Amino acid sequence: MLHRSKKELNRMLLYQWHELGRHWMSPWIQLADANAKIFSNPNSWLSRLPGAERVSAYNELVYRLGKDYEKPEWSIHQVDKDDASIPVVEQEIIRKPFCRLLRFKRYTDDAGSIATLKEEPSVLVVAPLSGHHATLLRDTVRTLLRDHKVYVTDWVDARMVPMSEGEFSLDDYIAYVEEFIRHIGADKLHVISVCQPTVPVLAAVSLMAGRGEKTPRSLVMMGGPIDARHSPTEVNGLATRKPLSWFENNVIHTVPETYPGHGRKVYPGFLQHAGFIAMNPSRHFMSHWDFYSDLVKGDQQDAQSHRQFYDEYNAVLDMPAPYYLQTIRTVFQEFLLPRGKWKVKGELVNPAAIRNTALMSIEGELDDISGLGQTAAAHAMCSGIPKTRHRTLVVEGAGHYGIFSGRRWREKVYPQVRDFIAKYA
Prior knowledge:
The protein has helices at 2-12, 14-38, 52-66, 111-119, 138-144, 170-184, 198-210, 234-241, 244-250, 269-279, 281-297, 300-313, 321-333, 377-381, 407-423; strands spanning 78-81, 84-96, 99-106, 122-126, 149-155, 189-194, 218-222, 253-254, 265-267, 319-320, 343-344, 347-348, 358-364, 390-395. The longest helix is centred in the first third of the chain and has 25 residues, at 14-38. The radius of gyration is 23 Å and the shape is globular. The protein has a nine-stranded mixed beta sheet with strand order 1-2-3-5-4-6-7-13-14, sandwiched between helices. It has a three-stranded antiparallel beta sheet with strand order 8-9-10. It has a two-stranded antiparallel sheet with strand order 11-12. Helices cover 44% and strands 17% of the residues. The N and C termini lie far apart (65 Å).
C-alpha cells in the first residue's frame, strides 16, 4: 500500500520533477553551448587544437539535446508572386483564451496587383492542436499566400492560460471554428484542415448547415482521422488498446506554479515529445549522428537543415486535458462521427446536412499517422453534397507531413488544391 502511494505521488509530481531536472541541467546545457562556440570560433586559439572540431560538435549536440525549445516564429515576411516579392504582415484578428486567429496580409503599391489580391479567395487554415505549434504549417501557409488571402488558427500553449479562463474541450474547439468562419464570412471562405482538426471542422460545418447557416464554399481535408477504423495505425492502436481511464491516470498532469496556467490539468508537451520520439527512435538517433558527423566535416548546410527541422519538431505545447480526453473517446475509441452518434452540446453532428460546400480529401500513400481511407471516409458521410463536387487525392510516396509540407506539397499537392479552390471561388 505504501509502495502504491509513493508511485501515485511520483506520478502526480512528474511535471514538477521534470521542471526541477530542467532547471538543474540548465547551467550544464549553457556550458555545452559556450564550449561549442569556443572550439569552433576561428578567432579562438582553442579552435586550432587537435580534435577541436569533434569537441565543438559533441558540445553542440549535447546543447541541442538538452536545451529548451520555445515556440518558433512564423517568420513569413514576404511571398513571391508573378516575379515580384510582396511584403506580408502578420495580423491578430481575434484573440481567444486558447487560440489566436491570425491573418497574413499581403501589401503592394501597384494598383493592378492590389485589385488582383482583393479578388483572390480567402482561406482559413485550421492547424492541429496535437502537440506541435501551428507554425508546423509554415510551409503550407507560405505556399497558399501565392494565390490566396490566408487566415490560420494559432493555438495557445495550455500551460500559459490562467485557470480563470476556464476549461477547454473538443466542443469548445468546434465553437471556436464556427466563430472564426462566421467572422471571416462563410459565403466567401474556403477551409483547409490538416490532420486532427478534420474532425472538429467537419463537425462545425455540419452543425452550421443543420441550423441553416451559410457554410464555406469548399472544405479541403488533409490526412485526418475522420473514421479511424480504416487502416488503423499505431496511433489508433494505442487508443483502442487502452481504456480512457488509462490515459487520464498516466498522461494527464498538473501545470506547476512556474507557469501562468498553474493548477490546470494538461497532457504535457514533454510527454508528447517522448511519444513522438518513441514511434521511430532509430530514425532520430541516426539524424543526430548525421548532424554530429556533418559538424565534424564542416558541412554547415546539412547541419543547418537539421537545426531548422528540430527547432520546429522539438517545440511542443501542453494540451488541455478535457480536450485531449474527449478527442480520444470521441474520435479513436467510440468513432461517434462515422457512426452518426456524435452530439455537441445536444446537437447531432450530421455531415449529410452539408449541401452547398465542395469537398476534397487528401491522403498520403505512406501516412503512418492517419491511415489510407480515414480522411476519404468524409465523402460517404457528406451525402448531401452533389457527387460532382467531391474530389479525392492520394499522394503517391507521401507520408503524413509530405502532404502539407516540403517539395511534394509545393509541387504536386498545392497546384491541385489551388485549382480546386479556384473552381468554387
